Amino acid sequence: MRKIKLTKTELKTQKNGLKRYKRYLPILNIKKQQLQREMEGVRIELEKTASELNKLRKEIMPWICLLGEEVGLSDLIILKKIETSVENVAGVDIPVFVEAHIDIKRYDLFIYPLWVDKAVDIISKMISLQAEESVLAERLRLLEQELNITSQRVNLFEKVKIPEAKAAIRQISIFLGDQQAAAVGWARIAKKKIQGVI
Fold first, then answer.
1. Which CATH number fits domain 8-191: 1.10.287.3240, 3.40.50.720, 3.40.190.10, 1.10.8.640?
2. What is the rounded CA–CA span in Å between residue 154 and residue 38?
C-alpha cells in the first residue's frame, strides 16, 4: 500500500476511488459470469464435435484397410479455407466457425474403386469437423484468457483496492477528527487566555 497523505483532498480522492471500485465490481462480476456461461457452451459444442468425429471414425473402421491402397485420396480432397466470423462476447472478439471450404476434385468413377465415393464423403466431413473443432478450441482459449484477466481484476478490486481504500478513509478520518478535536481544544485555551488578558 502506498503512503497516503492525511489531508481532506486525499480523503475525497480515496472516497471517489472506493465509489468507483464498488461501481465497477458488479460489472466485472457480470462479465465473469458471461464468460463462464459462454465457455460452458463452447465446451458442450466441442464435446458434440468430438462425438461426431468419433462416430465417423467408427463408421470408417470396417473398411479402413482400404485407405492404405494408393489411390490418391489426398489429391482428391483439399481444404481451401476455413471461413469464420467474429462475435463479441462480453467485450471480447472471438471467432465463430461458419464453414470449411473443401475442394473435391472430379475423378473418373471407372478408374477409382467403389469405396472412394464413401471415403471422400466421410473424409470431407471429418475435415470440416476438425476445422470446426480447431475454431472452437481457439474460441475457448480466448475466452479462458479473458476470464483469467477478469478474475484477476475482480480479485484485485475485492481483496486489494476496496480494503485499501476503506483503510485509508478510516485512517484519514481518524487523523482529521483528532486534528479537529485538537483545534477545538486549542481554540478554547486561546479564548480563555484572551478573556483572562482583557
1. 1.10.287.3240
2. 18
